[in-house]
Amino acid sequence: MTNAKIKRQFVDTEFGQMHCRVADEFSNEKPLVCLHQSPRSSREFIPFIENVSQQRHVICVDNPGHGESVIPDNSIGIEGYARAVWATLDGLGVGQVDLVGYHTGSEVAVEMAFQRPKDVDQIVLISALIATDAEREKFISDFQPVPLDEEGSRFKRIWENAIHYRGPSVTLEILASSLAESVRAGDAYEWGHQAAFEYSRVFPERLQSLSHRVTVLNPKDMLYEYTKRIAPYLVNGVVTDHPEWGSGFLETDPKGASEAVLKAFTGTN
């Protein structure tokens, strides 16, 4: 069986033009909406889409200020990202959806379900930040934007972080693509991280308010220990550790990732 063709689309919304990748061979199926980490884009889901689209209609949306979606005048936070994704889905004319969120995308997924609970069926979260106040402030401090200079300090910082956090089998080519995605928003490149850290203040409460089935996949990346704390906030869910995966596993093990996500939606995890 050949992979469904991934189409790229722009949707006009109140937030400006939003970019998404769509694989709609199974257009009669409930859409599976993928939400990326920061400061990446839907590009990181391409190998995953190629696998999971054998069974599902897939839509991956670039958050505002990420990928090829419009850069807003000011940071709009996780709440704004969620509204922008809903506006994109409304523009595409889709109905109820399942959600897959990765890092920042996990928070966007929870906020989307909080905003429009009836329009979401099930949720899969891949890593999630459950942080203390002190941990949150350290994240905010560590991920401050670096001004441009002739020495390339901004790019060196991003590259050093990529090298430090990369998972098993992640190649330099994958890291280079990641770096390119990370700098596309110019001086706004850290807005996504900062939005995620700020939202982590309300994330546990919002998650606990949801009755949806929530499956949490916990790869051994930078949020591995933080994600382990999520269980008490799941009203209807389960956490599955995946120490065999690290940062970048969507690209290095897309088959395993797609199998785990599809199993989660059928309740066999």
Overview of the structural elements:
The chain is built from eleven helices and eight strands. The two termini are 25 Å apart. The longest helix is centred in the N-terminal third of the chain and has 16 residues, at 77-92. The chain has helices at residues 46-52, 77-92, 104-115, 133-142, 153-165, 172-182, 191-199, 203-208, 224-227, 249-252, 254-266, and strands at 7-13, 16-23, 32-35, 58-61, 97-102, 120-126, 214-219, 237-242. An eight-stranded mixed β-sheet has the order 1-2-4-3-5-6-7-8, with helices on both faces. It is an alpha/beta fold. 39% of the residues lie in helices and 18% in strands.
Distance between the termini: 25 Å
- Which word captures the global form? globular
- The average pLDDT score comes to 94
Helical residue percent? Answer: 25-40%
**Strand element count:** 8
Main β-sheet: number of strands, strand sense, barrel status? 8 strands, mixed
| Unreliable segments of 5+ consecutive residues | none
In short:
With 269 residues, the chain is of the alpha/beta class.
Keyword list:
alpha/beta; 11 helices; 8 strands; 269 residues; 39% helix
Q: How do the helices and strands line up, and which of them pair or pack?
A:
Elements: E1 7-13, E2 16-23, E3 32-35, H1 46-52, E4 58-61, H2 77-92, E5 97-102, H3 104-115, E6 120-126, H4 133-142, H5 153-165, H6 172-182, H7 191-199, H8 203-208, E7 214-219, H9 224-227, E8 237-242, H10 249-252, H11 254-266
Parallel strand pairs: 3-4, 3-5, 5-6, 6-7, 7-8
Antiparallel strand pairs: 1-2, 2-4
